[in-house]
Design brief:
Low-confidence stretches: none
Strand order of the largest sheet: 7-2-1-8-9
Radius of gyration: 18 Å
Number of domains: 1
Shape: globular
Number of strands: 9
Distance between the termini: 26 Å
Structural class: alpha/beta
Strand content: 15-25%
Order of helices and strands: EHEEEEEHHHEHEHEHH
Amino acid sequence: MIVSIHQPDYIPYIGYFYKIAQSDIYVFLDDAQFSNDNMHHWNKIKTPQGECRLKIPVEYRFGDSINQVRTKNELKWREKHLKTIEMNYSRAKCFKDVFPQFKEMVMEEYDSLASMNIAINRFICDGFSLKPQFFRTSEMDIYTAKEERVIDICLAVDGTTYLSGNGARAYQVDEHFSNRGVILQYISYHPFEYKQLWKEFIPNLSILDYLFNYGFDWNHIDEALRGS
């Protein structure tokens, strides 16, 4: 059983979902510490002027986990994000097929930033027919840290292989995993070019950019990555 783990990010890029597609089990690290720098509450879309960052205003205290962070809905950020998205993608081929469903998900009430991101990301997975088993670390009673915690999570869900992001190569040790019966592998993902609105191609935008141009066509992603 292949396991991957990641924080629940806001409308993440294609690579996030490619990792899910390669996994039998996907674990949302929703009790990880919230970071303003990480993409827990922001992402990028494309406009005629280039990249545009959509950032959610949030309420938190230093040290809070993502599932303790509240989105400041009273500031009407949801309406602003949706309006910005509509202004810049209404001409896209699949906009009308995807936007109403996405809007409905965003406008729901959630108890935390993590819950919202998980709901949206699972909605996108459903659209792509990506159906691993999903777990949340906040429901797993695992209190170890760093590499040891990753291994403990894998074992808790009966995983035999951990599919890691490449950024962790600097501190993960193969033997630490194999000594406990888990094979350590790294994801192989490279951005690929697809048709976008507005001038030259920009890689690593929010998955929304792909969805509005191609809809829930996972085969196109799969074929592009196999050929790269």
